[in-house]
Fold this sequence. Notes:
Elements: H1 8-17, H2 19-28, H3 33-36, H4 45-63, H5 65-76, E1 83-92, H6 106-112, E2 117-125, E3 130-137, E4 146-153, H7 159-169, H8 178-188, H9 195-206, H10 218-227, H11 229-237, E5 243-247, H12 251-260, E6 270-271, E7 277-281, E8 286-290, E9 296-300, E10 303-309, E11 311-312, E12 317-318, H13 324-331
Parallel strand pairs: 1-4, 5-10
Antiparallel strand pairs: 1-5, 2-3, 3-4, 6-7, 7-10, 8-9, 11-12
Helix pairs in contact: 1-2, 1-4, 1-9, 2-4, 4-5, 4-9, 7-10, 8-9, 10-11
Amino acid sequence: MSIENMGSIEALVVASLGADAGRQTLDRLAIEPALLAQHGDTVSRAAFAMALNVALFADLLRRVPSGDAYVTDTVARGGKVIFDHGALRSIRFPNGPTGALPGGEDAFTRIFLPLGYTMAAIYPLDRLKMTGRAYRHSDFPEAIPQFFLSELHVDRFDAEFAEAAGRVFGTSRDPLNDQAKDVLARYEGDSPVQLVDAIAALPVILSAFDRQHEAPVFADYQLLLSRSNEAAWIATEGNGFNHATDRVADVAALAERLKGEDRPMKAKLEVSATGRVRQTAFRADSVERLFADGELRQVPGSFYEFISRDIDPETGRLDLAFDTGNATGIFAMTSAQESAVR
Length: 342
């Protein structure tokens, strides 16, 4: 089938990932039919946002074998993944940008807001010296995955940490080119975006979800790690998806089944203060990363998460909130393999 005869999301995903990988990823996900039905010469912000998330989901599974194995098993059982949210981490210096990259969340709000996302809530992560923010899509809040974007505050650490962070993250580049910025500006201005322009912009915008700085010096990495597992993680993994999350009916029952299958499960279920949001995850998979000294080392990579959401009795709709305690507990998945850093 030619690109012109596909729905907007399929056309974008196939153009970005290739025909086989694109269709395999789409087949793994339960996507709102109204989104899949969108087609034509122009691409809506909702279709572009969903295609972006499909491609990010594929990238996460490429880097997280435990998650890929789970999804493969889910599809073999006749199921599909309801992609609830993706999480990413950023770093905020007190005096402006990070190298050539806008500081902290600014590197991503310039993408999220034009594509129809709004900030739904702020979650202080004080124990981690971070702030989390949830971004929810205005057009399809339950169907298009949310982003949980966290920001690590360099000014909450000591001067030695700040100097090492400056050396590591100060080399960051800005991945967005003029063409991608123009497409985002058109979405922001409610102007039509042609399919051909959306196809050209998607890989560039996808590249923003990656590491933008040079490989760190190992001594700087170790110093960051001594103060913050999250800072060390950003040093090697950058702004890649920290995790992607599967929305399931009964996360507690699923966790027990997966533990029985000897999957790399988190020991404890995280339950929100309301009791309506329950989360668990696989432990982060180890990855090999090249450091500035030319050595490859094993470090914690990303992971796959599971969540159950109940109906909020006040709204009668799915409770799409997050929880500070839950988030702090889930973040520990990338520090569980500290001993693997070598």
